[in-house]
């Protein structure tokens, strides 16, 4: 029973969705790439897929992985798995094969729902356990009716894998009660049903996607699912934002997108803006309050307590804090002895209530460390977040950052020990310290400082190359520097505080093709377009010069930097390059310049091309 919200009294998630379909059957449920399906059509597709799962021997409490390209079928799959009473496990097809293999093995998946790319992924990996591969497209011939299973509150709804300190991701087990309470909490705290539509731009493996999909649908919202290409384009996201009422986004992503004037203008059309996943900088709040009249909310919560646990409306508020707990959620500030701190003192933020998940899949010892019994909590357990906080005079809470070796980068929670474990596994590496650098030149980037065995001559590019097949791109350090020794504290431990501010002037990432620590020969710009593109790369990477034939990822480029670069290309050169084309076909200055030239020529008339060929190539400004 979910106390405090009548809509959620004594009802299962499956029945709640069926009620929503009856209320909103002809309304758009999901919009993707100019294709829209209604709630009744979504129900029918989910029923067909649920019948396919049943015919494939999937039963309640089984675990089913989702390996699909981003599409309407992503949401259909989540609903179908829940209808059967099974547990869904979202997996990003862009993850390294070794990580996908581990998630499938560790979760003991009974089946994997796939499309063509998902099938190719499954064929390319080696999974020891018996996983039934089910093509989602085969559901079209199935019966459109389905008598959905009624799940119990303690049944698992989904397992989300997050970074783990041992080098292996850990699965967070979220129950139906957790999910229902979160949905009720969002309704009560922010009035989600006050808007008609929401943009869904988060990756399916990020737990906040749950709000942009299942929770939004339960409240009757139309979910505008953003494609992978749209997610990487500020212009495309501006178009989506102009067409919806609500948006959920991380501060880092929002800061990046607001460099595009059209996106900033689009914010003014929103009615609701949810910001979370990492700390919200004060200057960004002030910028937002000037850019939009939308209701602004700062959202806080770890995956282990079901997406968001605290909410603060910041529409007319000058100070950034995380606010108050949502429905049926309690927050405590505890000291090192697990005792409540005095009023105004700093303590560890600990969360109790209906949002606290069932713990980590198959990791009882790790679960026992973070999910604890406590005298303050009469029913259930207390989750220790590892975040430090303080209670404000008005009763709201302020988060002061991490107390451990965990950070958030672009909304992704990352165990730095996870990255260190993989770097130490690289042959030739003796020691490593990974930090979130606060050096002004690279503030907020993951930096790795490496000590090699005396007889080794690895360069940063070779280390990065070894990580590419093991870690998601958001976990690969933007900067890797080889040191003779790591700085140490007085007790002989690696001095991470020193590394956080370590000088990075010599921290020049080396191309993976380079075989030595010597700086590679620089290939300089040869055309006007290359000059312009080179300038933009230098601004993004904050260094100069850059070799025109050096690969973007080999330089330490990330998806966030790529979005920033392509946004600059669009705003300054008037050319829009798709993220997928940039990564696969045009990821050097030289190749990107050729790609831009081709796009320019494609927009020119025959007469303009003849005039161009009869003269010297004009500047970018002349052509635009």
UniProtKB/TrEMBL annotation:
GO terms for molecular function: phosphopantetheine binding. GO terms for biological process: amino acid activation for nonribosomal peptide biosynthetic process; secondary metabolite biosynthetic process. Residues 524-600 form the Carrier domain. One of its GO terms (cellular component) is cytoplasm. Pfam families: AMP-binding, AMP-binding_C, PP-binding. It comes from the Bacteria. Signal peptide: none annotated. InterPro entries: AA_adenyl_dom, ACP-like_sf, AMP-bd_C, AMP-bd_C_sf, AMP-binding, AMP-binding_CS, AMP-dep_synth/lig_dom, ANL_N_sf. PROSITE patterns: AMP_BINDING, CARRIER. Transmembrane segments: none annotated. This is Putative ANTIBIOTIC SYNTHETASE.
């Amino acid at each position: 029973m979910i106390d405090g919200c009548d809509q959620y009294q004594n009802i299962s998630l499956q029945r709640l969705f069926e009620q929503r379909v009856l209320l909103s059957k002809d309304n758009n449920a999901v919009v993707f790439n100019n294709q829209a399906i209604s709630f009744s059509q979504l129900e029918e597709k989910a029923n067909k897929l649920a019948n396919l799962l049943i015919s494939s021997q999937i039963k309640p409490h089984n675990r089913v992985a989702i390996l699909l390209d981003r599409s309407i079928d992503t949401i259909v799959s989540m609903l179908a798995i829940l209808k059967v009473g099974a547990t869904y496990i979202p997996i990003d097809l862009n993850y390294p094969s070794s990580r996908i293999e581990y998630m499938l093995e560790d979760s003991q998946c009974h089946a994997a729902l796939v499309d063509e790319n998902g099938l190719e992924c499954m064929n390319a990996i080696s999974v020891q356990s018996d996983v039934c591969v089910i093509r989602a497209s085969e559901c079209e011939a199935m019966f459109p009716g389905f008598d959905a299973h009624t799940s119990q509150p303690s049944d698992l709804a989904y397992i989300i894998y997050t970074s783990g300190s041992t080098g292996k991701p850990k699965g967070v087990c979220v129950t139906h009660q957790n999910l229902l309470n979160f949905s009720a909490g969002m309704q009560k705290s922010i009035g989600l049903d006050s808007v008609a539509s929401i943009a869904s731009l988060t990756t399916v493996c990020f737990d906040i996607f749950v709000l942009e999909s299942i929770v939004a649908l339960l409240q009757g919202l139309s979910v505008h699912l953003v494609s992978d290409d749209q997610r990487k384009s500020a212009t495309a996201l501006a178009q989506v934002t102009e067409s919806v009422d609500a948006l959920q986004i991380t501060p880092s992503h929002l800061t990046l997108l607001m460099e595009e004037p059209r996106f900033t203008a689009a914010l003014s059309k929103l009615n609701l803006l949810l910001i979370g996943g990492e700390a919200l900088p004060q200057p960004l709040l002030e910028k937002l309050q000037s850019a939009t009249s939308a209701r602004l909310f700062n959202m806080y919560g770890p995956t282990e307590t079901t997406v968001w646990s605290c909410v603060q409306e910041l529409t007319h508020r000058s100070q950034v804090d995380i606010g108050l707990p949502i429905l049926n959620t309690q927050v405590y500030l505890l000291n090192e002895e697990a005792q409540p701190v005095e009023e105004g003192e700093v303590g560890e933020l600990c969360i109790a209530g209906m949002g606290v998940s069932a713990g980590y899949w198959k990791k009882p010892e790790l679960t026992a460390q973070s999910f604890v019994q406590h005298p303050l909590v009469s029913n259930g357990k207390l989750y220790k977040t590892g975040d430090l906080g303080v209670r404000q005079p008005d009763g709201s809470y302020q988060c002061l950052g991490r107390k451990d070796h965990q950070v958030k980068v672009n909304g992704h929670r990352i165990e730095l020990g996870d990255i260190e474990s993989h770097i130490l596994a690289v042959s030739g590496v003796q020691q490593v310290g990974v930090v979130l650098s606060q050096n002004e030149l690279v503030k907020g980037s993951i930096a790795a400082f490496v000590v090699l065995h005396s007889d080794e001559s690895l360069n940063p590019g070779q280390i990065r190359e070894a990580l590419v097949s093991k870690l998601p791109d958001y976990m690969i350090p933007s900067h890797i520097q080889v040191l003779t020794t790591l700085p140490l504290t007085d007790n002989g431990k690696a001095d991470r505080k020193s590394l956080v501010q370590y000088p990075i002037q010599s921290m020049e990432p080396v191309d993976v093709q380079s075989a030595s620590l010597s700086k590679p020969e620089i290939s300089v710009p040869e055309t006007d377009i290359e000059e312009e593109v080179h300038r933009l790369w230098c601004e993004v990477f904050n260094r100069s010069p850059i070799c025109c034939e050096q690969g973007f990822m080999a330089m330490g480029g990330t998806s966030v930097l790529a979005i920033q670069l392509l946004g600059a290309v669009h705003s300054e050169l008037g050319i829009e390059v798709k993220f997928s084309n940039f990564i696969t076909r045009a990821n050097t200055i030289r190749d990107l310049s050729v790609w831009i030239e081709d796009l320019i020529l494609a927009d020119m008339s025959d007469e303009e091309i003849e005039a161009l060929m009869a003269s010297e190539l004009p500047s970018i400004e002349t052509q635009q």
